[in-house]
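Let us work through a complete example step by step.
Step 1: write down the sequence.
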Amino acid sequence: GMTEFVGLLMVNHEDDILERTLHQNAQWVDRFYALDGTVPNGYSRNVITSHSKCAGYWTDDQVPSPPFPPRPTDGYRQFLLDRCFEDIGIDHWFLLLHADEWWGMNPRKLTERTKHDGFVFELPFFVPRLEDGWDEHTHPLDQLRWRFGPGWPEFRMFRGNPNVEYHPTQHFNTRPMGLVSVAVAPHRILHYPFRSPGVQRERARLH
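Step 2: predict the structure and record it as tokens.
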């Protein structure tokens, strides 16, 4: 079969930007599988499942515990990987998508004639400046202009093989086991974790 580009999307209370980031990032994949930690999830479920490339949607509480811990980890991606393996097998490129990140470049170009099976990207993050105020009537992505760079190196893309696997409890580590050669991509993924005052309060409450 054809090698596909598959998004593994993890969502967690990004209703304010989800529609825009999903529209942007989904253009690079053939399909994506989503795991949603948003509560309540009426809006996010609708945005995600109505997208033409959505191949599966689950909420965090549908991930079986055990083997997975009751609270989400990076290892939860194995649940999405398993669903994809059941559908189309393992020999595909996987993008680790987040609803507060923006892929501005075409990652398919990285995979042409490459010997690497994994890529790390720099993620500069944006912050609202107090002196600029916050405009509830302007989209967050249109008013966040201040960013800290070059950004944290984060693992975000890999080629599947029979040894690739996440441990269910692995956390603060987005790289699965079983990869052979990981390189740093010459591209950046923009990160928007800090947005409106309301979103900030919600983030503080959740963590």
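Step 3: interpret the result. Helices lie at 18-26, 42-49, 77-88, 140-143, 197-206.
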